[in-house]
Amino acid sequence: MIDGVFVFGLAVIFLGLLTWAFKTLPKERWQIIASVPLKKEDSGHWTGVNLTFYGVFLASAYLFGVVIFLILLGALGVNLMGVMYLIIASLVFCVPSSWLLAVVVERKKHTFTVGGAVLVGLLTAPAVIVVVRFLADTPNLELMPALAAMCISYSVGEGLGRLACISFGCCYGKPIDQFGTLARRLFSRIGFIFDGHTKKISYESGLDGVKVVPIQAITAILLLASALVSIIFFLNGFFQLAFALSIFFSQAWRVFSETLRADFRGGKKFSAYQRMALAAIIYATFLLVLVPAPQPILVDLVRGLMMLWQPSVILVLESIWLGLFIVTGCSMVTKATLSFHVRRERT
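and the corresponding structure tokens:
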């Protein structure tokens, strides 16, 4: 009963959030949340840094993925120390790689890629899990269930992270008029029109005001739906199915979805991110074959949910969100010029 309520509750939250986001976030108003003055110029104005909704949504997506990961591992009976070690190790490997690989592929300093982080995370995950199992003395930390929890959490984080892309106007689709009659008829009803000259779709491709394929929305819907199904498999003890569905579906979709995107993905027709996704699929296949099926494990969702209600966990989660927001939310591609004055109102 509790498992069904949990999955249904997640579905309702996702549906409500996505419905609001798809209607709202392409607008210019939803790129910058605040500007902070840093230096006063000779003109009397201040230069400042912009804090973005991109950072808010990306940090929140990461955090939601971490929460799902914590709940799923807690449901397996993994102790809190083991879960925290895995979370910290995953962030240490994945967050820097999401920046570094994007710089290598796109040759831009201020950008991130989830695709690169996924490949690095998947490659390092088995070793990290084995080391954490030893350090944290968690004999019930089985490799395949932990991998399944990681991939489900990734699908949740990636799906919600697309909202950051809608706000910033990045990872955008091709103009609808470039497609055939059937595709134009479909996308003309659901396409995105981005407003604002500071959105990436504007200054990179000049496509603001043009109806484009809502690839971010489609990705969000598909990945979150696959994550919900994978959670059902996980809670019923079908860890290999949960792992296979979450990783194969997400990476296969990345390979295909790049054909609908218009943003710069490197100089080659078959992008580096598509090759990374194929590599992840191949490596995941080897893991499915080589990693033995775990012994039957009692999955207790209540036990996982109770792990959240601890002061130490709440403080760690808050710190993770704040750190990620500072890294991703301080805009490096936009600039603010501010002025201040006293309001003189009639009494």
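(Above: one complete record from the training split.) The radius of gyration is 21 Å.
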